[in-house]
Write the structure tokens for this entry.
Amino acid sequence: MKKIKNLEIQGAESVAIHSAKALSYVVRHQKQGLSKKEFWHNVKNAERQLFNARPTEPATYNVLKFMLAGLSRKSPEHVLEKVLEREKIVLEHFDKAMSKIAEFGARKISNGMVVYTHCHSSSVMAVLKRAKSLNKNFRVNVTETRPHLQGRLSARELNRNKIPVKYFIDSAGRQALKEADLMLIGADAVTSTGQVINKIGTEMFAEIAHIYDIPVYVCTDSWKYDPESIFGYELNVEKGKSTIFWKGKPKDVAINRHLFEKVDPDLISGIISELGIYPPSMFAEEMKRSYDWLFKRRKP
Amino acid sequence: MKKIKNLEIQGAESVAIHSAKALSYVVRHQKQGLSKKEFWHNVKNAERQLFNARPTEPATYNVLKFMLAGLSRKSPEHVLEKVLEREKIVLEHFDKAMSKIAEFGARKISNGMVVYTHCHSSSVMAVLKRAKSLNKNFRVNVTETRPHLQGRLSARELNRNKIPVKYFIDSAGRQALKEADLMLIGADAVTSTGQVINKIGTEMFAEIAHIYDIPVYVCTDSWKYDPESIFGYELNVEKGKSTIFWKGKPKDVAINRHLFEKVDPDLISGIISELGIYPPSMFAEEMKRSYDWLFKRRKP
Amino acid sequence: MKKIKNLEIQGAESVAIHSAKALSYVVRHQKQGLSKKEFWHNVKNAERQLFNARPTEPATYNVLKFMLAGLSRKSPEHVLEKVLEREKIVLEHFDKAMSKIAEFGARKISNGMVVYTHCHSSSVMAVLKRAKSLNKNFRVNVTETRPHLQGRLSARELNRNKIPVKYFIDSAGRQALKEADLMLIGADAVTSTGQVINKIGTEMFAEIAHIYDIPVYVCTDSWKYDPESIFGYELNVEKGKSTIFWKGKPKDVAINRHLFEKVDPDLISGIISELGIYPPSMFAEEMKRSYDWLFKRRKP
Amino acid sequence: MKKIKNLEIQGAESVAIHSAKALSYVVRHQKQGLSKKEFWHNVKNAERQLFNARPTEPATYNVLKFMLAGLSRKSPEHVLEKVLEREKIVLEHFDKAMSKIAEFGARKISNGMVVYTHCHSSSVMAVLKRAKSLNKNFRVNVTETRPHLQGRLSARELNRNKIPVKYFIDSAGRQALKEADLMLIGADAVTSTGQVINKIGTEMFAEIAHIYDIPVYVCTDSWKYDPESIFGYELNVEKGKSTIFWKGKPKDVAINRHLFEKVDPDLISGIISELGIYPPSMFAEEMKRSYDWLFKRRKP
Amino acid sequence: MKKIKNLEIQGAESVAIHSAKALSYVVRHQKQGLSKKEFWHNVKNAERQLFNARPTEPATYNVLKFMLAGLSRKSPEHVLEKVLEREKIVLEHFDKAMSKIAEFGARKISNGMVVYTHCHSSSVMAVLKRAKSLNKNFRVNVTETRPHLQGRLSARELNRNKIPVKYFIDSAGRQALKEADLMLIGADAVTSTGQVINKIGTEMFAEIAHIYDIPVYVCTDSWKYDPESIFGYELNVEKGKSTIFWKGKPKDVAINRHLFEKVDPDLISGIISELGIYPPSMFAEEMKRSYDWLFKRRKP
Amino acid sequence: MKKIKNLEIQGAESVAIHSAKALSYVVRHQKQGLSKKEFWHNVKNAERQLFNARPTEPATYNVLKFMLAGLSRKSPEHVLEKVLEREKIVLEHFDKAMSKIAEFGARKISNGMVVYTHCHSSSVMAVLKRAKSLNKNFRVNVTETRPHLQGRLSARELNRNKIPVKYFIDSAGRQALKEADLMLIGADAVTSTGQVINKIGTEMFAEIAHIYDIPVYVCTDSWKYDPESIFGYELNVEKGKSTIFWKGKPKDVAINRHLFEKVDPDLISGIISELGIYPPSMFAEEMKRSYDWLFKRRKP
């Protein structure tokens, strides 16, 4: 739990998986002989702590909700059995989802293309590596993504995989896009109206892609869907410390500390998830069809 | 001359002024008793060297052209007299021009405004400081301007002058603009069709300003006008070394090395120069009216 | 019924509720001893009259449809029982829906915001008052909405509720929006393709909001959805008398008498109804999921 | 089958119907006494051949899928019975669908309108003729649609039906649209993200319609939906031979041979199919609701 | 002078003409025997008063500047002679200019056109009446122009001149434009960058005209050019009293009191003045060519 | 003269040159001994006939104006002398102008570029061939330009000159542009507000180029400037016969017969003429500076 909070574990999928494991661990290690109520109290307590470690990640929220859904009045034994079963489902889900996203996304890449990406998304990396393994020839343009320079992570990972890559500073994003045929990005969250939350700069670059008629696909596990957004809840989008942006800045200079921004659904051609490729405005509908337990409202 | 070449002297105006001084120095220190032809040969030689030290700066080109215009067949004495006279004119020109730009530009700033700027332009700084000295209250949003981080120069200079400033990473440029009422930028060159050459990112931000209906003014000495652009010559726009963008990048990763880009004249409300405020498309016309010697074509 | 026709009852929800009550009244006051057929004939007759009193309001149409759905061959006693039951459901529906809309919508308002609205919508008022009751500080910009000046109704209502408000003439709508962070409007109807029918001027202002990147939310009871729009039926949108626009106009001057216009779904970020917040293009799908009886086609 | 391959049968609906008939013919004419496995082998073989005759048409693919869905392990007798039953359903489907499309679409046409269309679509023709039969007065602007000049087919057919028509060369498409109130087009395929595949030029004209605020409706049988698009498969869009574009072109001149292009769903107001009128982004959802057998994945 | 200040004299041309007459009157009625200095002092005093009566109108400013240009050290007799001479020139100027504008503008109107105008401009009226006198058939769409309803003045004047006219409320401006082929507006001032100051709503409508590809011409006497705008001076644009907008408004409701707004030069196809038809960005250049005395800077 | 009228002579420059020759021929072959008045009458007569042979071409109009400017009261001998002198100037003008345009324009083309052009312009061809002769490697995309298929002329001419070329039907113009870095077109006329008249389709393609941020340059002899456009005169733009568009069309089908259209100056980056490269809005100003005789108004 600490690792999650201290950001030692990175990537929304990773955090979600660890939360499932941690919750399962807690359930498994409860003392023997607790009453139903005491047992449930402890479990819920753990869930709350895990949730609060990363309160802005729908994937974690959804995993925790899934792990305990409908178990509130069950016996400790039943809860244990179900939680172990569901932990396995969660692990399998993320595993299979990633390979499906890679498969579906790779079909959008053809020979000779230039693909643009911003930041570093494991789903986008999976798509690009899958396309490479299918012997497709393409180049990737990547923007550096200040302040954390995740663009370098992407560039290194692609380079290790023998995928040609060209590196641009963020202010040259328009030039990076002008050469591109396709824009692929990850997502931190998806809302009921199809808005995608992603690293700052994404909407500006998506808008330019839209003007230049370059399709924009979001590659993401569908569990990043935020079911609370239906009811108007806004995600608490994380901000960074000022030193991340400017170490040693003069005291009186203010800093814009946003690290994420929303991307308008009109700028997105489709969301590539393990469910297939759907327009962002239809995503909530598709989620309801596939995971109805998600839409039974309850805040941990 | 060396200092100019080695970039020890920075800022287009500074380079132009030093070129005038250097040329005057050369003329003053020619050996006695040279023939008209020998004398002129040496002077032209110096001019060429000075020009080649910074071949992409119209201000330097224009200053050199002005210094020697119409003197090719004159006696060494006449040339000396004229060059000294013109050196003085050049120094006065840049001095007066800056204060006029500051005066005209400051009139565009009113109380309560948020002004956006990218990079660090001495003309823009002069405008903002002049507005401050007129007791206007306003805030400045500035983007950091990777790779050289000139946004920090701007932020520090404004902060020292008690002007409130807010600092944004380049990818947050849209957020910086959304809060702004006015965008002010400098220029490295202006062409016959009203295109402005400025630091990379400027066109992307100017386009966003245009969408949001925020006026964009370019603050610049008019001598940055490139008279050769009438004849289709394209400025050799400087690129940076890859290490400036990513020190220690993997060998096979390519780098986009552009440091400057053109800004479409449609995105610019007006150019604020010592001549007054004119639309970019009319700038060449106004230059012809004011400095006709500039339009007698000749490449040093 | 007369009151409805003579516009003594205003507001789509109000009319719908009164139609339910009136129909229930008619059912309750049928003579004893009528045959099934006679009884049904009378009831249908009343329904038709109520429908025709306001033929352009989907809410009324939907309420009437709901009240009698599946009862055509039932005994008078059964019909009476069901109609009373459904009347109650209708009243509860509109009551609960309004408070849900207020709740969901208020979550979109945060401190320091400027909210823009056009015309006077009871749902928008409910949202704004709810946000105020949550101690949020915000200002409302409102356009006057010629010819009926409903903007003044909005301004007065907000003012009575201590919400700061600024009043703009319609031609200054762009200025009203330029200061705004959020646009909230009501709806007279919503179609299968997500078009929203609202007071004239709404689309022009929504377009400006779209350009300025200001989210536009439509606050409306979902029963304003027009289920006939699936089959291509166009709503008969009401026009006003010329004297409303210009009393004493010269005889030969023509008058544009439109009072309503359609708003393109691309300009709308989401529809806030009692069902939650969904994109307009998904609204029909969500309606089907929630109220399937609505989609059994039948024109009263 | 040969006729289908040799393009003797034209129009997606026509090809789909003939494929159903051909498959049924094959089933009916199998030798007596085949084993279940042999029988099924032969039937599948026929299906594959039919599919390959026109691999880019979803309507054919969907019809073939429907004809054999769930029959793989059934007895020859059962297969025969089902195939005959389904053949009838297919024929009825296309017949009824066309008249529903005509009905729904005609409601969008009102007196005095100018309707724009590109190419020649049987669904669009059906809509226009239905509107005419309802005594609506309107004019049609049609672009010629190089290289096959199907605009002339449309012009002739409308002219025969006494509908006034004006003919434009493709480069005058903007002028054709500037006079128009409504744009109607057919479709060759519809994808999971709401993209519509249609004759080249359609997206350019739809974009102009969008700028001029002219609604664009796509008239199409819903079976042109491509269920494989959910998984990222791209339709193999047909190209033409160079001689179609320029007979006798110089050897070294390259030719752009695209005959079709994708239309962005943002440019489309609605898809008019036998299911009703829905936005393109919701089309996949509506298909799932209506034809769930289509979404059981299997490539023939 | 009083009449001017009290707005008894309306219309920028009218005010300018009366200022010329008033100044001439003052010069003519100076006491005999004044010293050169006393005489000039009185005259300058009068000029200042006239200027201050309407400080926001460039036409008045320019007329006053023209009347006294170069006369500061001349004898009273000489001044008298020149002022009388120039008064005549001014009167002739405005008279001839109006008929030239009418002539040039009328050439832009052809049979069958719909012309859109906002507010009431004497130059636009002159153009429309001239076109009518040339037997051109066209209709005018006019928006009412709250708060002063000058659209009704336009409608009445056109109606008296047998020109068909259709009246729209301001919020229906988009509908007024959608039917139009040409937009004609007047101007209160024109700046060095080609911005046009006109009645509120003009920029919003000009933007819509631009989107719909409808040419926008500004009809104005060139003396409305503001020569001070070159130096960054902003016109003090007049605001109205709140009671003009809402008589009896609740005390705490704020009012947006702008009556004028700037129109971006990019939205204007040309300025029709007595000098001919030029793009707004070239207007300052054309003024310099025609009236160089205007550009000798001096504030009265 | 006949040849000109019968379109045997093609291309605006060609027609203008032949008009100069024809007028000179007429002057040279006047009978001896004519009175000044008779002589002038005959010459003016010839001028009028030549003008009327192609009333829509400014180049011809300008040449004829130039040939006789200021000669109305001169002796036959003087007129003869001047006309011969000016004939020579005209011939030289067009010759030199073309090579300057080629030179200036070629500087805009760099290695690796794709240049797009529509129709067939001798100036554009000259630019492309000059660039080729400078050993630049580039490809040209050309649209076919129905109904006269001048795109094929361009394709053949480029192909003969070993310049790689790709041919697109007009409806694929967007695809042709999406691959392009530069758009070059010719002009039939240029107006005082910078509008360019060119072959139909040009504005639609220029608009797409603008969206995609591709610079558009117009290559044209400056004598195609129409000096009458200052006064509001509209060029009589030529239409084609319907058979050109559709041979054998059904009698009742109407045909849009436009062959030319105006291109908005906002869509044009610059006009490349023998005067240099200027923005369209400044073109009239530059013409006045260079050819003041053109602006003395007189209609032949």
